[in-house]
Write a sequence for this structure.
């Protein structure tokens, strides 16, 4: 979802969802569905099957809930008290509150990241700001705070200056039709102005033919229209590298080809979903559902190819026997190092050229041909039967795969995808509440496993690839995860985390303890290893005093 739509949608949802109740949250492959009651919409669907996640309010289910897994159970039966966006950063926050039970009110914050590299949905504790659970996909980064935002850009569509900034188009003052120049200019535009998405930036540059004044005029028009907050929903076709992409925007764009406009977001999103979101979702389901069959098909094609070669060799057993006899008859003409030899046939009517292995002695070349003849004669029937069976299975799998790829109903595809809660895909229930933890500051939280089972969950399920993993070197101890770390994390945060790892180890009473740390992506679990086992590919070692912060 582009920044402009996310910005406008957040304001719309604040009106339409306030005081709604969340009945439950469910995860499907590449989709999260939030069931609602008491408002404009019955469901919020978060698709994360494509390059960018999409948030689709709807009154219809995408698929039967029996194919989903309930997640974020802490949020069930909570009332929505407010929705807001973090500027034009494609982040929507929904604050929810429980009420009327004996423990009093408890707030949570549901965060939707409509940014390609981020986890699409995360649940935070409203009081502490700590992560409770997150829906994650491969290579996605989970936010560590409800208010984490991407790096700030110099400009924003909500506050553009009237005059073109002097440094924005430096080295690009003359229009240029070269594709790479336009591509670089669009990238600079996107990286300089908050609120522009890559597709819109490329369309602006293309429509202005790379002219800086024309580009700035188009961008300024979009910014002025956005600031009015007078949203009217449009579905556009925007071109990208000879491809046409469909996108929804909350205002009239001075670029692109408009398909339709409507006062209703629901109508515009319905059309956008039909044209773009749903087909991509179905495609991803087909890829997931057909993964095993495609793998088997590849294996069968290779098998049939190899068996065909083996059958061809086996059918030549009489020819190999003849070669062996001819070489035996003319043994005196053979020498080591010969690559081939031409001999008269036994009838004397023709010449036969026989290939030889230069590395073998004459008698070894003769034995090799007799061995091939014997093996071919013995295995001919067996190989023929295997080849016939493999071809039959190949036809069956090909037909089955063709039928599967022809399916368009989500339920029919989802029933072919196993619901495995602990699989690499269903890692949604990453509850942080069960681990011991220390909040070091508003950006950094330390999580500690209490036993081997928790160590496994913490390291191999809960931690994201970019988190830092700590462990006392060479001794048994807890796995420790530092969330919120990046290249600018202060050294004292790393040392404090290392001291915690040293404290929760067998070296707790030592004065100085070496502690290993590395990014989680370099930590793996060896196959068939017991709980709590981890192997690391690279490490940095800190020498620290074991201690824990005064409170957690």
């Amino acid at each position: 979802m582009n920044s402009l739509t996310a910005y406008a949608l957040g304001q719309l949802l604040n009106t339409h969802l306030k005081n709604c109740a969340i009945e439950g949250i469910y995860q499907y492959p590449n989709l999260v569905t939030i069931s609602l009651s008491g408002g404009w919409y019955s469901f919020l669907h978060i698709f994360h099957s494509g390059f960018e996640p999409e948030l689709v309010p709807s009154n219809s289910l995408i698929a039967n809930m029996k194919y989903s897994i309930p997640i974020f159970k802490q949020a069930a039966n909570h009332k929505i008290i407010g929705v807001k966006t973090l500027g034009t950063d494609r982040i929507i926050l929904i604050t929810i509150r429980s009420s009327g039970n004996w423990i009093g009110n408890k707030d949570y914050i549901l965060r939707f990241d409509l940014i390609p590299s981020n986890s699409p949905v995360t649940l935070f504790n409203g009081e502490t700001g700590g992560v409770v659970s997150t829906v994650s996909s491969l290579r996605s980064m989970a936010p560590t705070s409800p208010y984490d935002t991407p790096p700030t850009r110099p400009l924003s569509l909500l506050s553009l200056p009237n005059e073109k900034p002097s440094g924005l188009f430096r080295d690009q003052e003359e229009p240029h039709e070269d594709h790479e120049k336009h591509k670089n200019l669009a990238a600079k535009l996107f990286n300089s102005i908050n609120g522009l998405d890559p597709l819109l930036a490329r369309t602006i540059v293309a429509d202005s033919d790379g002219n800086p004044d024309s580009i700035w005029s188009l961008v300024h028009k979009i910014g002025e229209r956005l600031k009015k907050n007078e949203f009217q929903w449009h579905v556009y076709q925007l071109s990208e590298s000879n491809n046409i992409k469909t996108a929804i925007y909350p205002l009239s764009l001075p670029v692109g080809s408009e398909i339709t406009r409507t006062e209703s977001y629901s109508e515009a999103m319905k059309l956008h979903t039909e044209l773009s979101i749903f087909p991509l979702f179905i495609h991803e389901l087909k890829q997931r559902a057909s993964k095993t069959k495609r793998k088997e098909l590849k294996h069968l094609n290779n098998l049939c190819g190899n068996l065909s070669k083996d059958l061809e060799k086996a059918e030549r057993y009489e020819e190999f026997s003849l070669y062996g006899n001819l070489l035996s008859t003319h043994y005196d003409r053979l020498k080591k190092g010969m690559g081939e030899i031409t001999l008269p046939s036994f009838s004397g009517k023709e010449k036969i050229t026989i290939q030889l292995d230069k590395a073998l002695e004459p008698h070894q070349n003769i034995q090799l041909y007799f061995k091939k003849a014997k093996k071919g004669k013995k295995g001919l029937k067996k190989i023929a039967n295997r080849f016939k069976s493999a071809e039959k299975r190949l036809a069956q799998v090909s037909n089955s795969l063709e039928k599967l790829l022809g399916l368009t109903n989500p339920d029919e595809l989802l029933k072919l995808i196993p619901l495995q809660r602990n699989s690499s895909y269903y890692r949604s229930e990453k509850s942080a509440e069960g681990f011991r933890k220390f909040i070091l500051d508003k950006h950094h939280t330390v999580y500690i496993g209490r036993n081997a089972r928790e160590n496994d969950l913490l390291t191999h399920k809960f931690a994201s690839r970019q988190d830092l993993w700590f462990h006392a070197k060479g001794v048994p101890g807890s796995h420790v995860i530092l969330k919120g770390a990046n290249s600018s994390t202060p050294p004292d945060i790393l040392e404090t985390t290392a001291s915690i790892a040293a404290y929760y180890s067998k070296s707790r009473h030592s004065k100085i303890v070496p502690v290993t740390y590395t990014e989680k992506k370099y930590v793996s679990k060896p196959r068939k290893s017991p709980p709590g086992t981890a192997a690391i590919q690279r490490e940095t070692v800190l020498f620290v005093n074991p201690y824990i912060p005064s409170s957690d």
